[in-house]
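Dear Dr. K.,

Following up on our conversation at the group meeting, I've run the structure prediction for Peptidase M23 from Sphingobium cloacae. I'm pasting the input sequence below exactly as I used it, so you can double-check it against your construct before we proceed with anything downstream. Let me know if the numbering doesn't match what you have in your notebook.
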Amino acid sequence: MRVGARGWAGVALAVLPCALFLSFCVRIVPADAPAPPVAARQAAREEGGALLIPVEGVPSSALTDTFTQARASGARPHDAIDIMAARGRAVLAAADGHIEKLFWSEDGGRTVYERSPDGRRIYYYAHLDGYAPGLREGQAVRRGDRIATVGSTGNADPSAPHLHFAVHVMDRDEPWHGGRAINPYPLLAGER
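The predicted structure tokens came back this morning:
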């Protein structure tokens, strides 16, 4: 079959709008994409309100609400969400605050407890592979600062590294391990 000049022109007219749509409207981000540029992280800090997704390069579309799921033992609720990511991927501060506690636990493994500036929230990061160099208790952190790396320490499956992320509402004088768990998913996925 032979296609004439008119046939090729028709094909080009059909393909051109599709190509323009893809180049302007669709952004495909691989799972191992590098971190957003510093300017993008700065813009996220200035937005306020919702929390920054605390794993570098993970879009909100990749999040799953696992807050109410029972744990494998069935004895306790999850009270957090798991953000799947490659081991070693940067864990970022979800909001401004200060590092309240660096802690090792049997369940959570290597963990970070970050308290909000008003003292009313604790952000809990667990199953970490390692802390950012120089991270210490009492240190002020800004939304988007690198604080750790994703891992599978504690009771996490070694073949499924992830960040276990929880948010607890606190009284100002409550200890770092207290508070009431609230679902972080709506705060991370941009739902109000």
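Two things stood out to me. Residues 78-189 form a domain with the Glucose Permease (Domain IIA) fold (CATH 2.70.70.10). The longest strand covers residues 121-131.

Best regards,
J.T.
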